[in-house]
Design goal:
- Belongs to the DinB family.
- By secondary structure, the chain is mainly α.
- It has 7 helices and 2 strands.
- Strand 1 and strand 2 form a beta hairpin.
- Helix 1 runs antiparallel to helix 5, helix 3 runs parallel beside helix 5 and helix 3 packs antiparallel against helix 6.
- The longest helix has 25 residues.
- It is globular, with a radius of gyration of 16 Å.
- It starts with 5 loop residues before the first helix and ends with a helix.
Length: about 170
């Protein structure tokens, strides 16, 4: 794979932005991460577990796993992170980022088409780079949820705009 592929750069941004969120959350009062609030998700922890599980889902799809294998792995990994501390969840994110990096490094062509079966939409074709961008977009959306939930609790979100990543 070309080292400077744009999709890989966007994935690196996704990892950086998630790290910014974790660093911010670890500086806030303990309850902010896990307390139940009335919002899009019941807690910030649940947003982060959802994002983690979805990132696993797409990596498995990119690797060629069947939807059944993928769902089984995601369910197992979800159980492993149920109720874990913010530090433990951050470690899981770090390991998943390494899995993505290893996968992406092994790909000679991120512009290739992959075929997968979706439980509701049937057979789908995706360009691998487009799926990576989807992972990033999904993460951006949910980091926005976390920021809004923090504001609801009187706290500040972490600045994760792409421009900040480019300036680092």
């Amino acid at each position: 794979m070309e080292n400077n592929h744009r999709a890989k750069k966007m994935y690196d941004y996704h990892v950086w932005a998630n790290q910014q969120v974790f660093q911010n959350l670890k500086q806030l009062p303990e309850g902010v991460y896990g307390d139940t609030i009335k919002s899009v998700f019941p807690s910030i922890q649940e947003v982060l577990v959802h994002l983690y599980a979805t990132d696993i889902t797409w990596l498995e799809i990119m690797k060629g796993s069947t939807i059944q294998e993928t769902f089984k792995k995601v369910e197992q990994r979800r159980k492993e992170v149920d109720g874990v501390s913010i530090n433990e969840l951050e470690s899981c994110y770090d390991e998943l980022a390494k899995d993505y990096d290893n996968f992406l490094a092994s790909q000679p062509d991120l512009e290739r088409t992959i075929v997968t079966e979706h439980p509701k939409m049937g057979i789908c074709e995706f360009v691998l780079a487009d799926l990576i961008h989807h992972v990033v977009n999904h993460g951006t959306y949910h980091r926005g949820n976390v920021s809004a939930m923090l504001h609801q609790q009187g706290e500040r979100g972490a600045p994760t705009d792409y421009v900040f990543y480019c300036l680092k």
